[in-house]
Every structure is written in C-alpha cells, then in structure tokens.
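Blinded run. Sample ID left blank on purpose so nobody reads anything into the name before looking at the predicted structure. Input follows.
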Amino acid sequence: MAFRSVFDGGALRTEFESAGISPHFVPLIWKYVLHNPGCDLSDVPSLPSAAYPLLSSKFRPLTSFLSSALDSNDRLTTKLLIRLQNGNSVEAVIMRYDTRHGKYDGKPRSGGPRSTLCVSSQVGCKMGCKFCATGTMGFKNNLSSGEIVEQLVHASRITHIRNVVFMGMGEPLNNYAALVEAIQIMTGFPFQLSPKKITVSTVGIIHAINKLPIDLPTVNLAVSLHAPDQDIRCQIMPAARAFPLGKLMDALQTYQMNTQQKVFVEYIMLDGVNDHEQHAHQLGKLLVTLKVVVNLIPFNPIGNSSCFRTSSEENVRRFQKVLRGVYNIRTTIRQEMGQDISGACGQLVVNLSEQRSAGGASKFKDIEDLHI
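Blinded prediction complete.
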C-alpha cells in the first residue's frame, strides 16, 4: 500500500474534514515534522484522538528520503538525490550566494548570505528539449504536492532556504494542480516563504500561464524562450510546436497586464544556433513591448552525445550589448554554479541504474537578486 505524504495538503485536509477534525491542526503537524527529523506521526502532540489512527493508516511524515548530497568543489552548490517511494528519484539543487559580493546599479548590494533551492516537479520531462539532460530521461511521472514540498524539507535540514525556483526536472505547468498546492504550502505556516521569492519556469504552456494571475498572482514567472523565432525554437524545443510564439507573446502580454509584474526570459546561448547578432535584434523586437529581464544562459555540456557547443564569451557579450543598447532591455548573464557535480542549468538527470548523475556543477546569478 502506498502512503500519502503528510505534506499532501489537500489530501490531508480532506481526510480530516471527513473525520470531523479541524484542518487548523494540519500546519501544526507540518511544523512538528519539519523540526523533528525521523519522527513518527504518533509523536505529534495535542491532536484530537481521532487524528492518530487516521494519520498512521494513510500518511507518513515523509514518503521520500535523501539518498545523497553532493557538494561542489567550492561548496556553494549541493545537489540532492531524493528517492521516492515508487522507486524513482529526482534531483534538487541548493545554491548559496552572498549578495555583498555583487553590485546593483554600480553600488554594493546590501544583505548577506542566503540559499536558493531549485526543485523538480516531475520525474523526467515530456518536453524533450535537445539541450537539456532531463529530456533524455523521457517522462516517468508527476510528483505529488507533498513530494515537491518534501524537497524543501530535505534541503531545510541542510541550510535555511530563502528562495525557491521551479527550474529542476520536469515542466512545472504540466503538473499544475500539484504546483499550485505545493507553493501554497511553501508560502504558509511553517515555511512562510515570500511568494516574491518563488519563481516558476515554463517552456510556455499557454493555457496554464493564463491561469497563473488567478492562482499564483505574486509568484515570479520565467519563460524558457531560447530562440527569437518559431523555426529555431521548434528545432531545439520540439514541444514548442504546440505553443506558437505569437500566441505565447499574447499570453505574456495578458499575464503582465493582469499582474503588473515583469517576466524573466531565459535564453540558452548555443554556438551557431541562436547566438548571432541578428538573433539578438530579432529577440529585441519580439520583446520590446513587454517588461522583461532577459537572462542569457551559457550552455552546459550534457555528455559526449550533445550536438551543441557553448557560445563564446565574445558572442554572449555582443548579444547582451544589442539587447541593452538598442532595445533598452535589461539583460544579465547567468554565472553558472555546480558544473563539477552536474548541478548546473540543463544538467539534472537521474541514472536510475546508478541512482546518481554523472558530470559537473555551475555559478548562477540568483534570479531573486534581479530587483524587479
């Protein structure tokens, strides 16, 4: 029998309500589990007597366990391999930053050390992006809201997490209900993350983007665009055929009108594919009517089979100069973290026979540092 995670909030509240137990006990259970690793649900104090047999018969404090935690050489990145109760595994990545080492508007930043957690929403991915290691796995299954939140629980026992980005394995908006519930749990007691410190990345699932202003109005949206026109986009992101670029831009305009928020645009730099100066002009014209921050991402190798190469630093700088200088679009270059442990953007993939990834780690400019 498969048990539910106690962090599957909707399921737990439904069971409590059916048994006549007030759902206000649910966050208290979460707090106890969060602060008491290895506990049993019978240990949770001050619950109604009817709650204990219900919890023991249908739920577990955690349905996953931390199989390994691998640190990068600079110890700024930690990749977590998390084993699920169905035997599959997912990866999550902790990235540590110190804002005092950076500058904003030419001045030193205030603040200090903090950590961002990159979480997975699926085992594998249906999108099949050709530059992403996760796509080579194919799609295995969606994660429950509890399995998503449990990644935060495991990471919180290593370091305090301030920011969460849904940029790990899977397409978050293809697991929409679990995504929304997981974020609602993360922003409530006891985690209490600020919605403005949570970013959801998508290849551009239009019908789901249209629902975000209602369900998650203050969470950041990042769109994995990666090309300035539909033809190139379809070549490197086969799933883009279902989401025409014109309709995606219309959806982003509507999203922006409804939320009054800037949109992050992620653009992977592939040598000779999408990194020419003409591509920068095409991208600038495409985005000029939107309020966006473009994040240029150096391509991270995903093994010997990759047909792509990383753009030269000169091409990346030239691309940035066009977007900034000609189109006045704020454009950053992601400093990759964790390549030595395969924890960088596009490198997350689980080899189920070995239960670990092969490869490297990267230095990534934290998306929550962009002061939008």
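Unblinding after everyone has recorded impressions. The two ends are 46 Å apart (CA to CA).
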